[in-house]
Specification:
With 95 residues, the protein is α+β, with helices and mostly antiparallel strands. The protein is 43% helix and 14% strand. It is built from 4 helices and 3 strands; from the N terminus they run αβββααα. α3 (56-68) crosses α4. The longest helix is centred in the C-terminal third of the chain and has 15 residues, at 78-92.
């Protein structure tokens, strides 16, 4: 059986940004690397991701990769795109 990891990693950007919940620090995550890097910026992680063209699904998958390992199922951004679609659908329905 072929290793699915390279195909999943190819769906991810080279870099994304996140905010550490415990400290509020902005971090940079490089695809496939086991560590993250602190970022000193006046911009938020969401602003930096938008600047780099990183979707929310990709950013969540990248955070999962650095925290849980790059072979974890949560590294596939498709898992989060479905969540985003459901959230968009729920918001668009009349109350």
């Amino acid at each position: 059986m072929a290793d699915a990891r390279p195909s999943v990693l190819s769906k991810l950007p080279g870099i994304s940004f996140a905010t550490l919940a415990a400290t509020g620090e902005t971090i940079a995550i490089c695809r496939g690397e086991p560590n993250y890097y602190r970022v000193e910026s006046t911009r938020t992680a969401d602003e930096l991701n938008a600047l780099y063209g990183v979707s929310q699904a990709q950013a969540r998958a990248m955070l999962a990769g650095v925290m849980q390992g790059w072979d974890a199922p949560q590294v596939d951004p498709a898992r989060y795109e479905e969540d985003a679609g459901k959230a968009t659908e729920a918001r668009s329905r009349p109350a």
